[in-house]
Amino acid sequence: MLKNHLGFNFYFALLFIVQLFTESDTLTDLFLFPQIHYFTKPLIAFSLFALLVYHTNLKGRFSKRIAAGLLFGLAGDIFLMFEDCFMYGLLSFLLGHIMYISAFFLDYKINTSINKDHAKNAVLGFGFFIILFCGGLWPYLGEMKIPVIIYAIAISAMGIMAFKRFGRVNSLSYKLIAVGAILFVLSDAFLAINRFAYSFKLSGWIIMATYMAAQYLITFGTMERRIKNKIEET
User: Fold this and answer.
1) In the chain, what are the domain boundaries?
2) I want to staple 231 with a disulfide (CB 3.0 to 4.6 A). Which of 9, 60, 190, 227 is the partner?
3) Which of 37, 42, 40 is nearest to 70 (CA)?
4) How far is 22 from 41, CA to CA, in rounded Å?
5) Where does the sequence pass through the membrane (predicted)?
6) What is the spatial distance between Cα 182 and Cα 41, in angstroms, rounded to a whole number?
7) How confident is the model at residue 41 (pLDDT cuts 50, 70, 90)?
8) What are phi and psi of 113, to 5 degrees?
9) Is the pTM of this model over 0.90?
10) 3-state secondary structure of 215
11) Are 137 and 192 in contact (CB under 8 A)?
């Protein structure tokens, strides 16, 4: 996987580092220039979208839906750079997760009867996350209670559907997207905690690192996707 995309991976690693630097005013002043994040942050989802289009030509519904999710992520990244556009950013990422859910469902419906225990474990795990996440943030959410609950359900559903691909696609694609989904959930959880409850040190680095890794893994999991048992693209 890495060998086949050396040029892009070098570029994305550089973008990854630069974006993390922008989360520190000190590092930005030393090595970069002010406001560079307005340029680098949108490049995260856009570059992955461009790679996906180049690699797949958006053949098949799965690739198209992941591409749409990346575009909604791009819109969300832009909106979240402006404090008064937070709700628009939240809505954009919500729509992005819905696109990811619909893509992962394509693999799940190939054979809904296999690996039911695996699917149940995913539901229990992410169900516990919703309870813990919403319960912990509830006193701090104010008028944002309903939007945050809806969003928490959406990201958990995205994680569940990522795990429900088990046994239906090749191992590499499954693992890349499953880990990407977990990192996406963690990134959103850290973002919510930092915004609504407790602003902690290095929060920006943790949020961005997990987010960039999540989008990268989901994109590459899409490019590496192969249906098991010679079942054609759905």
Assistant:
1) 3-230
2) 227
3) 42
4) 9
5) 36-54, 66-82, 88-110, 122-140, 146-164, 176-196, 202-220
6) 21
7) very high
8) -95, -10
9) yes
10) helix
11) yes
Structure confidence at residue 204 (pLDDT)? 86
- Burial per residue of 116-149, b for 16 or more beta-carbon CB atoms within 10 angstroms, e otherwise: eeebeebeeebeebeeebbeebeeebeebeeebb
Name, in order, each residue with C-beta under 8 angstroms of 100's C-beta and a sequence gap of 6 or more: 65, 66, 69, 158, 161, 162, 181, 218
Q: What are the residues whose beta carbons fall under 8 Å from the beta carbon of 85, sequence distance 6 or more?
A: 79
Residue type, 102: S
What's the length of the chain?
234
Q: Tell me the CA distances in angstroms from 110 to 98, 165, 230, one per residue in order.
A: 19, 9, 12
Buried b (16+ CB within 10 A) or exposed e, 68-107: bbbbbbbbbbbbbeeeeeeeebbbbbbbbbbbbbbbbbbb
pLDDT single digits (tens) 203-232: 888 999 999 999 999 999 999 999 987 544
Separation of alpha carbons 132 and 135, rounded Å? 5
Q: What percent of the chain has pLDDT over 90?
A: 69
The rounded mean pLDDT for the chain is 90
Query: Which residues partner with 169 through β-bridges?
Result: 227
Are 155 and 184 a contacting pair, CB within 8 Å?
yes
Residue 28: is its pLDDT beyond 70? no
Each residue of 128-151: pLDDT tens digit?
Answer: 999 999 999 999 998 999 999 999
Rounded Cα gap, residues 147 and 214, in angstroms: 22
**What confidence score (pLDDT) does residue 168 get?**
92
As separate numbers, helices (DSSP H) first and strands (DSSP E) second, the chain gives 9, 0
What's phi and psi for 33, nearest 5 deg?
-135, 155
